[in-house]
Design goal:
single chain, 6-stranded parallel sheet, alpha/beta, binds zinc ion, about 600 residues, 25 strands, 9-stranded mixed sheet, globular
């Protein structure tokens, strides 16, 4: 018996296949027909309607709809009457590209936080990690503690959390990138390869003791090149006095000579244009001695110009004297003038530590205070209610010698630069101002406010960027980008994941120092194109659909809070934001009215030199 369809060669082939294959082929045909039908009907995956599109290029805001299919923006304009599987009504809202934060330390956090907190809450859809030389690869599997030693204090990431939360399935940096690629993630990540990790991998304990020899440098250079070919975004290092290990020694990269750093940047340049060099600056950058400043700046200018590799670094004002802030601006200008490329990472507000009785205080290591702070909070409340104990604590705080604080560790308070964080945005009243208004000593006011809040109040202690006019000047520099959140690091000391929402709520809405078009441009297209994310940072057809929908009238960082949810139960500061209707990553809604949807649409973005 011959089936009637035997003459049709296609049907005969299908009939001869196993049943599972036939079912699979049938499902493919149905899916293809379905997508053909939705295409014919003009059915998009998602349309954002009635929004005010601020497209990231700096062009004027315009009313429009944005269509998205298969993770990409497919149309922008008047799409009324067109069909979509889902519609987001953005009436009264800005529709912008997702923000790009090029200074984070999410390298470890990505192992236990699939969402991308707290950056994701503030509109960041792409985070660049591995800054300042601190990465988790390359690493020898029998010496992981050396890599952890670099990170633990310098970035305040709990060693216990890293031990409990990371499975260390890699040794080389390319293997680490594969881990990031395979890990479910809410937002996009790109990663630098870090010098401290390279050194400890190549040199072992010697990395914390001495200069690299020729063999060490060759080994590191080869790994830098392998990392770049695998998709690293660049190479990072720290020569900063703020970066120490828990036993008060410099981190590994600080033992490097300039020649070693030059060789590693050159090894990246040898592969062609596309890599970026990030550096945490040496104290000589802001030395009161002009000769030291010039010697240091000359090194970096020559390196950037001779290699053609863009240099990027944090742009902070450490004080009001000229040498404490001007050199960070001049370095950008001089590299640009001599034909190189440099990008300043401009923080958008005070830069410093968050203080509280629940976390850290400047007084924690002082006599009497030390015993008090080791007690449960209930005991501390009782002690503060005892007038003689309280006076003793005040006297010690006012007169004691404070130890040296590095990075974002709490330091001896200058009360004109300490303020209670009473809302998500300024204005804030400093402790010095409150003290003169209440006719009390600053320390008494500080304790009063802490006790009145049941020890829940957070205080901001500025370590840099004291003067907000200077902050604005930095943010306005043509080669500056609003970034430097440090997200993923200093998790119980600072909370700067909100610097993008501070930019929008404070500098755009309240101060009107930037138009919304300018602010969005600097947080999207500028960093995206400078870092090589050429398919992102603009709302236009063909671009990846990383999008924020927010209300400029209400967008605000929420108050920071303390949570104990790190692997092993360690604490961290957390801060969400108000005013976001939706944040999309690669066409999927990651946050809907601020609430995570459970989607994990983030991707590893490999660098321009990847092959
Ligand atoms: Zn950093």
């Amino acid at each position: 018996m011959v089936p009637p369809w035997e003459d049709d060669p296609l049907v005969v082939q299908a009939v001869s296949l196993p049943v599972e294959t036939r079912v699979y082929l049938a499902s493919l045909i149905i899916a293809a027909l379905a997508s053909l039908m939705t295409w014919e009907l003009g059915m998009h995956d998602l349309v954002i309607t009635n929004g005010t599109v601020v497209d990231g290029t700096g062009a004027s805001a315009r009313r429009g709809d944005v269509a998205i299919s298969d993770g990409l923006i497919t149309e922008v304009g008047d799409l009324s009457g067109q069909q979509a599987q889902r519609t987001i009504d953005a009436d009264g809202h800005i529709v912008s590209p997702g923000f790009v934060d090029v200074h984070t330390h999410m390298d470890a956090q990505i192992a236990w936080d699939p969402l991308g907190e707290c950056s994701c809450f503030h509109g960041v859809t792409t985070a660049v990690m591995g800054n300042c030389g601190f990465t988790l690869a390359p690493v020898n599997s029998d010496a992981r503690e050396l890599v952890v030693r670099n990170l633990e204090r310098a970035e305040d990431i709990s060693a216990d959390a890293m031990a409990a939360g990371i499975d260390w399935s890699w040794e080389t940096f390319p293997e680490y990138l594969d881990f990031v690629d395979a890990t479910p993630k809410g937002i996009n990540y790109a990663g630098y390869v870090g010098h401290s990790a390279l050194r400890t991998w190549a040199m072992g304990e010697r990395a914390f003791e001495e200069a690299a020899n020729d063999d060490d440098v060759s080994k590191m250079a080869a790994q830098v090149q392998a990392s770049m070919r695998a998709g690293a975004i660049g190479f990072t290092t720290s020569v900063s006095g703020n970066h120490e290990t828990s036993d008060d020694r410099p981190v590994a990269s600080r033992f490097a000579s300039r020649d070693e750093i030059n060789a590693l940047v050159q090894s990246m340049a040898d592969l062609g244009p596309g890599g970026i060099f990030e550096l945490a600056q040496h104290p000589d950058m802001r030395s009161p001695d002009p000769a030291k400043r010039e010697n240091y700046a000359r090194w970096l200018i020559d390196l950037a110009v001779s290699t053609g590799v863009p240099l990027t670094y944090g742009m902070l004002a450490f004080g009001t004297e000229d040498h404490k802030w001007k050199p960070v601006v001049e370095l950008l200008d001089r590299i640009t003038a001599e034909g190189g490329t440099a990008w300043g990472q401009a923080h958008s507000r005070h830069f410093g530590a968050i203080l509280s009785f629940q976390t850290q205080l400047p007084f924690d290591a002082l006599p009497v205070w030390k015993e008090l702070r080791a007690q449960p909070l209930e005991e501390q409340r009782r002690a503060l209610a005892d007038p003689s104990m309280r006076q003793q604590l005040i006297d010690i705080a006012d007169t004691a010698e404070y130890g040296r604080a590095i990075g974002t560790e709490a330091r001896k308070p200058e009360w004109q630069y300490v303020f209670p964080v009473t809302s998500g945005l300024p204005p804030y009243e400093t402790i010095a101002e409150l003290a003169s208004a209440r006719r009390l000593s600053p320390m008494a006011v500080f304790l009063d406010i802490a006790v009145e809040s049941d020890l829940n109040m957070f205080f901001m202690q500025a370590a840099a960027n004291h003067d907000q006019d200077r902050v604005l000047e930095f943010l306005r520099h043509p080669q500056a980008i609003p970034t430097f959140s440090d997200s993923g690091a200093h998790v119980s000391q600072i909370m700067d994941s909100s610097l993008q929402t501070h930019m929008l709520g404070h500098w755009v809405r309240n101060e009107q120092a930037f138009t919304i078009e300018q602010a969005v441009h600097r947080m999207t297209q500028v960093p995206a194109s400078a870092w090589g994310f050429n398919d992102r940072g603009v709302v236009a057809a063909g671009m990846a659909a990383d999008i924020n929908v927010f209300d400029l009238e209400t967008v605000t960082p929420d108050m920071p809070e303390l949570v104990y949810d790190l692997p092993g139960g360690a604490r961290r500061l957390r801060q969400t934001a108000s005013g976001f209707k939706a944040t999309l990553v690669n066409g999927h809604v990651l946050l809907d009215e601020g609430a995570p949807t459970g989607a994990r649409p983030g991707q590893l973005l490999r660098g321009r030199l990847a092959n």
